[in-house]
Amino acid sequence: MTDGTYSTSSPERNRLREQCEREDLVMFINPCFAATRQNEYYTDRYLASVSIEFLHQYTLINYRLLYARTLAAGINHFNQLQIIFNLLQSGAPGDPRQRAEEGALIAAALRGLPPNRVYGLFTRLQQARINNRRTRAVIKTYLNWRREPDFDAIKYRNKFRSAAAHIHFQLDAELGRFLFDPSSQKTYTRPLLNQYRQAQYSASAIYELPFTVAESLAQTHQIPREVFLQKIQPKMTAAEKMRYQSTAARTKGVDIEFDLSRAGLTKLALYILSLKQRERRDRAVELQAALNSAATKALRRAPLALGRVAAVLDRSRSSLGSRERRNRPLGVALAASCLLRNTAREYRSFWTPENEEAEYEFLTRPAGQTALAEPLLAALEWRPDLIVIVSDGYENDPPQLVDQVARVYRETIGKGNTPEIVHMNPVFDADHYSPRRLGSTIPTVGLRDAEDIPTMLGFARFTAGTTKLEDLEAYLSHRVKRMLNSDET
Amino acid sequence: MKPEDLQQTISLKGLKLAPSQVLGGVRLAPVIRKQVREDLRLTRRPYHEDVAAVQLDQKTAYYSYIPHAFIADWSNDGSPAVAYGTQIRRLQKGQKNSDGRVHDLGFMTARVMKKMRKREDRNRLRFLPMDLSLEGFLSLHFGGPDVIWEEYSRAAIRDGLSPRCEMSVPGRWIKGLEDALRVFEIHENQVGSLIFVGDALASAFIVPHPDDYRDLHETLLTDDYGELLYFYGLYAQENRLHPADIDAKRVASLEDLRREVKRVRGDWSTLHTLMSDNLLDCPVHNEMVYKMGPFQLQRFMTELNPKAENHIGEAIVRKNGTLEYLKSYRLSAAQCRRAYLLMQLADSNWSVEACAEKLSCTTHELIYRLEKAGFGHLFHQHVHDKVQSMLRNAPW
Q1: How many CB atoms lie within 10 A of CB A319?
Q2: Cβ of B239 under 8 Å from any chain A Cβ?
Q3: pLDDT of A433-469, one tens digit each?
Q4: Which of A2, A75, A425 minimizes the C-alpha distance to A84?
Q5: pTM for the structure as a whole
Q6: How far apart are CA A88 and CA A105, in angstroms?
Q7: How far is A429 from chain B (nearest CA, A)?
């Protein structure tokens, strides 16, 4: 701009604006896969929440349409809820088409989320006193969609009540009495509500209730832990059974029947890592089989066929995660390894620090430093088509070497047939508003669960900075279409 | 003990430095031992008292906050020093043990000990880390003037420099150190760390065995640091260091690339050695403290140059010169100045004139400097007055 003014149609200006927009969007969507409002190994919860909240507000105000569409990009639950919250808070847009699309996206996203989180969101809306017409409609639609309002009323009692009260939801007489008149002595005609009423007085009646509800009542009735766990088993969900395995192991005379094949891949990896080393070794064959079947199942849902794949996996001390996300980075790396092994024609994994457990990968534990350069070299030597690096990005032995290795290899040795290198990062770095990058040569994507790897491999090309904004927009609208059409209800 | 057995410099023989890890203004450089031998082990014995008093001789005592003592176990024939299956005795709070006596004074608790280092068994020595070298530093010309010159006050002639005290800052006060130690990823064979605050060497800590280091890693937080480092911590930024990148011109094959990676790794080690050149491979005054089989416990002090970093510290050295244990303390600028002036004065036989001539300044200037350094009580009142009036009439 030699004359010091900006002409509106200047191609340079358009190019810059487009680049800026693309970078903004990538900068928003990418952390949405990994960021949570939780402590991480390197950053704390406060920093994380400030950082992610800023990103949300910035994108909401500048790119509202794409902000809503991000709901369909496969981002993690925390960020989906945050987007819905912000959209509801800021009111419906004027354009009817956009309004309709947003509404459909919100409804579809809510149905895909775990109900406890959705009820949590409703409570947040109530506490923030967000009560516009759209909010009321959204909550009402969701409550009507739920198949068993009795069950919800029992399991999420307080949250359900505050949501219903918030929007003046038309409850039927019995449910209304159940929620808002707790001292009522009358019996209910609905079995579940009646069961709950009985369980207040009788210790034997609690076993028909959902586990979490029964648990607190068991305290009131002073039922011994082992008796309670033994009897409540049929009412536990698969996730609850998995969660209570270790507790049950400490309690004498309780053996929770738990079907390993039902758990998702990353959950299963985290479960395996929570076991003691000896138990892992004793049950190695069984655990490995469960991992493989979980990986196959995940792949059936999102098919992916790869050729020769090498994975560079980080098991350094920081993959320990934080108290809230114990072993999460390591668990994701383990699950990713398992998934890639099952989908690739040929597969090899390179751990850093080197894994001494040759036979079963899950016998590993987090320790030592992050040295990614040598494993990458070893991977390159094997000449794969694709290299996936799963690491939290805090490379420290030495810093920023892996990027140099990748760059120099591409420039001098690999030239045309350099394998594609993708860095997948399960950790959000609050200081830099993004999952920490390894360098400019290697595209970095946030990774929620290992099951998302197929999605992330598609998304990675946007973070590399070579694609156009239209492509990103097309990608998002394609995901939106898929989300809205695949809705079974 | 022959003097030539003492280390003239602190050298990292048998050790190498790995690339550092940075968090905020704190940089930790891991020290890796190439060959780990099991014949010397170091453990910690925690103390819970607010203050400890250590009797040094009939007339002298040393008072300090002492969070823990180190226990060194060694074997003379090179066999593992701590046999498997040995019972590890842990002391309860307030329990009396061989380390003197615990007094509860109501408002505070105190421990009174007999010696700085104590042989507890044939092959076991208890010593107080850092305090050993600080005591050596404090006792530097502790007695005050040996020769009576007319400038010295009666109190100085009667009591010398007693009591001499130095302040230091606990590691917890240094901004970012606690977090840096928490998130630090300890290497497999790591036996020590160099701690840099604002990229100035704050302390070096090396132990004989990786397991010992893992156990003692967090004691770096309870250690003492010079008050200078506290300010460095406040103002330090996250610094990026970069040795030379991989040179694309020299790479034609994977083998070359591998070699370049190795070279960069080596450059990091060189870089850290350069950053700590005021401690490593620089001439030190050494003093043998205790002989323990094939090992020697020594304390050292770098040449007190007021313009450079100065460290005091202690080391356990194997007979062949391998460094088995090292702990250093960086003196703050004021501490250096004090020690430097004291040393100069003592070297010129406590004669103020001779010393002033040596430092090429006037006697008044020297006395003014000594006063500013905190040794004002050495001089007689009329000397003070004279210096003050000189300053008023002819300020320089």
Answers
A1: 31
A2: no
A3: 889 999 888 999 999 899 999 889 888 888 887 788 8
A4: A75
A5: 0.87
A6: 12
A7: 13
